[in-house]
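Lecture 7 notes: from sequence to structure.
We start with the chain below.
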Amino acid sequence: MSGLGSSDDVEWEQKDSAATYRNTWQIAVYFHKSDNLCILDSKEGMNITLQPSSFGIVAGSPVLHAFNDEAKFAPMNGPRKHIKIKGTGKFLAYSSKKPKEIMLIGEKVEFEWSSNGTLSFEVPWIGGKLSDAIISIS
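Predicted structure tokens for the same chain:
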């Protein structure tokens, strides 16, 4: 099965806090199976094909000028540079610039950043509590 998807297909108005995202210029889109992150203009469509008896998970987040006019950022789980994370595993975001540092639970952490904007780091399990992450871009 194949189809065309765009940000217009997202029901942004399900939450009042997300309704303003409908007018965002760019969307970061993450394809789970291929571990691929790309940036699309908000009205740009993307072709999606599913093989028989398979599925695909696609996540999207508005690209924001969260730090300054030059640095763009789109966390795949919330639109802030000071982020509270619950759970464990790989944190994934789009960042147009390489972060200077990332602090997680008050300590610097190793992170991966590539020129296509993919930013990731591991979040440890801390007994179900929230982890504070601060992403600094200079």
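Points to note: The chain has one domain: 2-136. The CA atoms of residues 73 and 92 lie 11 Å apart.
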